[in-house]
Amino acid sequence: MKKHNFSAGPCILPQEVFKEASQAILDFNNSGLSILEISHRSADFVAVMEEAQTLSLELLGLKDKGYKALFLQGGASTQFLMVAYNLLKKKAAYLNTGTWSSKAIKEAKLFGDIKEVASSKDKNFNYIPKSYSIPDDIDYFHCTSNNTIFGTQMKEFPATSQPLICDMSSDIFSRELDFSKFDLIYAGAQKNMGPAGTTLVIIKEDILGKVSREIPSMMNYATHIGKDSMFNTPAVYAVYVSMLTLRWIKSKGGIKAMEELNNKKADLLYNEIDRNPLFKGFAAKEDRSPMNATFNLVDDSHKETFDKMWKDAGINGLNGHRSVGGYRASMYNALPLESVQVVIDLMKDLEKKI
Ligand code: PMP
């Protein structure tokens, strides 16, 4: 039986994608070869890479606007240092909204002076800081659009005259934004885009070439741009499955359609969290993430009962992250509304039982 998968990442992908991706392991494009045994230089795979790059830019509304799409390895965590390696001359500003922002700050400090413009650490990152100012004498401003662990999401992005860099690992392709405001966007594939193993980097070319340090080839965005994301062997299968998922997003009506469904799912669940006296939401209401809903039991003594209920109902991955406790329902693009309804029904059942 297919489980209701609320895992935070790697996570659920569309069933259609799983089917097509498994077929390609046996026979890719009726070639008599598995996708796992072909050269990354073969015409069939080069076409996959090109389509994945084109679809990414197209879905984000960034085609023909001076951006390149790269599919790199090393996870979003490698981007924490690549961003600084390639863009930090002297000073950069970072907004600290959680574990991942903190890790990005730590890496960037190896390359220059980092100004943390604001942090929500005082309240265990349950909100997004709003009133802060960004200095002018910086090389770029970095933020994390969606905080996977704490369940907060930036609804607005600050205006800055300097390049705007964003880690969108856990909400890319989930909501409409003016993506042209951003100069560099990165996202590990393993949420809304595909399996673990590749990281999408969308980069405005004109922000490069400003630092004077020597950059090792693999760490240099220019290297990967120059070789169309084929400088070394890319994560062939991860890029292929990402491409299938991007096709799926497009066929369903693009980001707009994803956002409509994501908002429906999130509204349903958050309404129940607020209505049900046994539960309380973790994140500040105005900053709640539609991707990752974090909530706790008011009385932890019901934990054993509730955990048994959801596990028996075929739900996977509802446990909260250790730094928040309680529960986290990750509702990425591919999670059906019916799965959210199952959790809500269980929350109501618990209320009746108690
Ligand atoms: N940023 C965010 C917002 C994340 O959620 C994660 C991982 N879940 C990362 C960065 C790190 O990604 P990776 O494991 O691909 O390095």
UniProtKB/TrEMBL annotation:
Pathway, per record: Amino-acid biosynthesis; L-serine biosynthesis; L-serine from 3-phospho-D-glycerate: step 2/3; Cofactor biosynthesis; pyridoxine 5'-phosphate biosynthesis; pyridoxine 5'-phosphate from D-erythrose 4-phosphate: step 3/5
Residues reported in the UniProt entry to bind pyridoxal 5'-phosphate: 76-77, 100, 148, 167, 190, 232-233
Domain of life according to the entry: Bacteria
Record note on cofactor: Binds 1 pyridoxal phosphate per subunit.
EC number: 2.6.1.52
Catalytic activity: 4-(phosphooxy)-L-threonine + 2-oxoglutarate = (R)-3-hydroxy-2-oxo-4-phosphooxybutanoate + L-glutamate; O-phospho-L-serine + 2-oxoglutarate = 3-phosphooxypyruvate + L-glutamate
Compartments, as annotated in UniProt: Cytoplasm
Cofactor: pyridoxal 5'-phosphate
Signal peptide as annotated in the record: none
EC supergroup of this enzyme: transferase
Domain named Aminotransferase class V: residues: 5-341
Subunit organization: Homodimer.
Function field: Catalyzes the reversible conversion of 3-phosphohydroxypyruvate to phosphoserine and of 3-hydroxy-2-oxo-4-phosphonooxybutanoate to phosphohydroxythreonine.
Family the UniProt entry places it in: Belongs to the class-V pyridoxal-phosphate-dependent aminotransferase family. SerC subfamily.
Record protein name field: Phosphoserine aminotransferase
